[in-house]
């Protein structure tokens, strides 16, 4: 099998070198780029299947690049952000990034995220029945069971669950979830989410106070973990 080409857009040569080394050690084929211009050239030359994107670049922002990329590609995007770039990070996720890593990060953390993104991109997508913990969700019949017993979800609860399962493993921002479940007019009403995620935890988590599947990403949104 040929190694998977990966775009590494990072302007700090040292960090870029470290990223490329980690990815190559994992059997991937990293293509380093230090600017938006170089990254565009790289994408023309190589059929990249994953992109690691720094937000602060010499000739523009990583968000601009993600917006361009999303016009034609669904390849997974992992954002690399500094600690003081919270707002930029959320904007990048809203623009279409799939996950983020805060610098400085550990090699193991980076590779775990990369593997998860590639795994998801390679899976065929929608499955009719999804299972997590002691819960099974049958999308064809819209039936949810816990330990084999039917659980009643309201239409909003079911829609929220479906959107979270569709984005499993990814950070799902408040705006994304509100837009997908309630519609564009509700993107500034995060309290709806708090209430409905609470409902899902109570109905589907073994210990709603210590959720294992409906995880809070403080200040950003939620992450659903199978
Ligand atoms: Ca930078």
Verbal overview:
It is globular, with a radius of gyration of 19 Å. The chain has a five-stranded parallel sheet with strand order 2-1-3-6-7, with helices on both faces. Strand 1, helix 1 and strand 2 form a beta-alpha-beta unit. It is built from eight helices and 14 strands. The chain folds into two domains: 5-121, Response regulator (Rossmann fold, 3-Layer(aba) Sandwich), CATH 3.40.50.2300; 129-224, Winged helix-like DNA-binding domain superfamily/Winged helix DNA-binding domain (Arc Repressor Mutant, subunit A), CATH 1.10.10. 31% of the residues are buried. Helix content is 41%, strand content 23%. The two termini are 29 Å apart. The structure holds calcium ion. Residues 11-12, 54, 56-57 line the site of calcium ion.
Number of domains: 2
Enter the CATH topology name of the largest domain.
Rossmann fold
Record field, number of beta strands: 14
Q: Examine the secondary-structure arrangement and name the CATH architecture of the largest domain.
A: 3-Layer(aba) Sandwich
């Amino acid at each position: 099998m040929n190694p998977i080409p990966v775009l590494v857009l990072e302007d700090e040569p040292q960090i870029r070198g470290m990223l490329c080394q980690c990815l190559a050690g994992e059997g991937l084929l990293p293509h380093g780029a230090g600017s938006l211009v170089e990254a565009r050239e790289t994408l023309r030359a190589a059929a990249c299947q994953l992109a690691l994107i720094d937000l602060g670049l010499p000739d523009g922002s990583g968000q601009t690049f993600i917006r361009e990329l999303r016009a034609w590609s669904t390849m997974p995007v992992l954002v690399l952000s500094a600690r003081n770039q919270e707002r930029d990070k959320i904007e990048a996720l809203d623009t279409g990034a799939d996950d983020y890593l805060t610098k400085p990060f550990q090699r193991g953390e980076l590779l775990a995220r990369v593997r998860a993104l590639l795994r998801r991109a390679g899976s065929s997508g929608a499955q009719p029945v999804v299972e997590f913990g002691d819960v099974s969700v049958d999308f064809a019949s819209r039936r949810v069971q816990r330990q084999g017993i039917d659980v009643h979800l309201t239409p909003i609860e079911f829609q929220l669950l479906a959107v979270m399962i569709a984005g499993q493993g990814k950070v799902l921002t408040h705006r994304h979830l509100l837009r997908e479940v309630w519609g564009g007019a509700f993107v500034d009403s995060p309290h709806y989410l708090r209430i409905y995620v609470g409902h899902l935890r109570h109905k589907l988590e073994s210990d709603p106070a210590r959720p294992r599947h409906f995880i809070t990403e403080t200040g950003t949104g939620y992450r659903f973990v199978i």
